């Protein structure tokens, strides 16, 4: 940790510094340099530790039912949540998102599972958001502080950079003063410790009433942001954190001659038949109102496979097939653009020997432009192939996917 520096009171802090104001002073205060946000190779990324707000309980697509949850852990994959939208809006910088949000968790429960659900995944950064459930008891602020401090201590000991969040407001007049008290402590703690902060409270509170901005957050229960709110908070997190990370770490193919890419014609230069670039396939037949096409985006290398839906009454699944080696660790990633609309987009894969098991890559309803998504897995034994599928729910929307990529990290010695 770098030493304190004495500076004039009116000098504005740098983006990589936090204020530490004295209880009394003569126009002077101390400033501590914030810890850098490191972005490692493909195996590093960002984890999110929290409760149902992190998990995305107020969202339409929670990432829980496909199953979207890593077996034996509390970790979700990519539901319609704040972590998912942070990944998508980060320009490829907030890679390998792990959503370790558990509904009903207090900060004490988060502390108890931080090793299993975060540290064991070896992320570079962990965003911590908790305290809403503490405020219901309420947990004394000293106990809340001890839990957060314990989480930060474990993360730092493991070489993981912590980022703390203020707790979003809620409509409970009993809990709100407790949340304000927790947030006051969090702001002071972050300043003293040189920890970066995401101020979710400021983004969610109605300044006139103290209530949750329900229409802005797409909320119905007075506590959990909905799809719209998760997208807004995720983009805010990405806008705040991504510039501090450095180069993009989500690996996507940039040319169609990339021999390491396991996805055939990942940049969609194949011959086009009925709007589909070979070898894209469609399960079943396209319903009325579904129109596939191949499009270009000047900021996305190659071409994008697009699918437009207009008031369709059934879902559509497009797919590509890869044949990775069982037992190898692979990363699957791509670029996606989606317009707003009632239809949701799910990108997921299922292995040839697990035809009833779907593992989500992505599950979103809100608009995204050139969003980068990524996940890693070890290919199960006896797997002959993996189908990468883009499923769009019935309704109206347009989505396009490009740079679909699968790299064998084991073969490349990137573990």
UniProtKB/TrEMBL annotation:
<dbReference type="InterPro" id="IPR013830">
    <property type="entry name" value="SGNH_hydro"/>
</dbReference>
<dbReference type="InterPro" id="IPR036514">
    <property type="entry name" value="SGNH_hydro_sf"/>
</dbReference>
<feature type="domain" description="SGNH hydrolase-type esterase">
    <location>
        <begin position="49"/>
        <end position="231"/>
    </location>
</feature>
<dbReference type="InterPro" id="IPR051532">
    <property type="entry name" value="Ester_Hydrolysis_Enzymes"/>
</dbReference>
<protein>
    <submittedName>
        <fullName>GDSL-type esterase/lipase family protein</fullName>
    </submittedName>
</protein>
<dbReference type="GO" id="GO:0004622">
    <property type="term" value="F:phosphatidylcholine lysophospholipase activity"/>
</dbReference>
<dbReference type="Pfam" id="PF13472">
    <property type="entry name" value="Lipase_GDSL_2"/>
</dbReference>
